[in-house]
Amino acid sequence: RGEAEAGLQEMQAAVEQREDASGRFQLAIALLRSEQRFKAHQALRRAVTLDADYAQAWNALAQITLERLETAPEVQKKAILDELHKIEAALAKIGPKAEGLIELRAQRLLLEGKETEANALLQQGLKDYPNRATLHMIIAAMAQRKGDNPTVLTHLQKAADADSEDAEPLVLLSGLLQNAGDTKAAAKALEEAVKRAPFEPELQAQL
How many other CB atoms sit within 10 Å of the CB of residue 83? Predict the structure, then answer.
């Protein structure tokens, strides 16, 4: 833990010495991996201030904001939703193909209770971008809320295939298979997840 913190401090010092949007974004990702979401939020805000067309940074900022919305008290939700609308507008200004724009619009529609519109948007997104893992992940989450496990399994697998570096779809897939009694397939999915995220002790402990 101490070494990781020292590494973050060195990274922050280097970014501040020669600041640019990319450096702030990379710092934010490192902070997120260390569960320092407030500092990550600050770094992402700085990244989009330095480069308003940095879609990746806006997208990461959107995901943090969505997480905040899930746990926020009712009195704070309107302000957070307003922030999401501003992030969506910034991505739309970059262009209709901006990374994360479809996903954010769909998630916002879901928050507003417009599931039919969100699903239509996601399905169109898959036609345009069939290998975008994040679209599959949102569809899987929607299906899980309905108890539609076959659809969840399908889209988690597609998300895992679409992004060979992301362990999350495989972790979720492993849990779902385990609950279904398919322990062999669950173990295989978890082993693959560990290969993708070898430095995650929580994953190692599940093997």
Answer: 15
Instruction: Give me the pLDDT at residue 1, please.
Output: 57
Global pTM reads 0.85
Sorted by sequence, the CB contacts under 8 Å of residue 46 that are 6+ apart come out as 19, 24
Q: Which two tokens stand for residue 144?
A: 């899980």
Distances (CA, A) of 164 to 177, 187, 196: 20, 18, 8
Is 61 within 8 Å of 24 (Cβ atoms)?
no
Amino acid letter for position 73: P
Residue 7: is its pLDDT beyond 90? no
Structure tokens at 41: 């939020």
Token readout for 36 is: 């320092």
Judge whether residue 66 has pLDDT over 60: yes
How far is residue 155's CA from residue 139's CA, in Å, rounded to a whole number?
A: 7
Q: How many CA atoms lie within 13 Å of 160's alpha carbon, on the beta-carbon side?
A: 24
For the chain, give the longest Cα–Cα distance: 53
